[in-house]
Amino acid sequence: MFSSIRNRLILIAGLIALCIVFLFPRDIQKRVSTDGGPMRDTVVKEVPIKLGLDLQGGIYLAIEIDESQGEVEDLEDAIDRVLTVIRTRVDEFGVTEPDIQKVGTSRIVVQLAGLDDPERAKEIVNRVAFLEWRITDMQELFRNALPAIDAALYEAGVRIDETTAAAAAPSAIEQLLATSDTQATGEDSTATEAEE
What we know:
Shape: extended
Strand order of the largest sheet: 3-5-4
């Protein structure tokens, strides 16, 4: 297809025409405030070029790791993890093209074009992470499925010796899911399924 010069020239002309089409102004709906009145939507013709921090203004944050309390063991890994966390937090702003990048070995630069609330930006970027553990199996579906799993393992030929089963402590799953009475007896669910 591209072996002849004519086909190549046609392709180049098509790409140039496509670029020219994207340079023409388009109708863009904008929310404009009236003189002291409410906001209203208007249609404006403009070329949708996104302005950067230098033309539009915005916020520039430089974040460094504080090693005053002690040295960080794996600085490269710590910076990468912080970079990931900051990227997810900056997505809350709804900034169209945030620029978040690692500079050197211990600095992260965040540029938020068009944002004019520096205190809120600092608060979101610097807030402490919160990890919460919750039980998601409220109907105890996994716990109720354990006897069926034990029976399937017994049918497949997975067996526990009577001598090792009596001496063995309950498994981690049984300890996690067991109530106080099953923890006290320490019975193995495969042994009860085999007797039935």
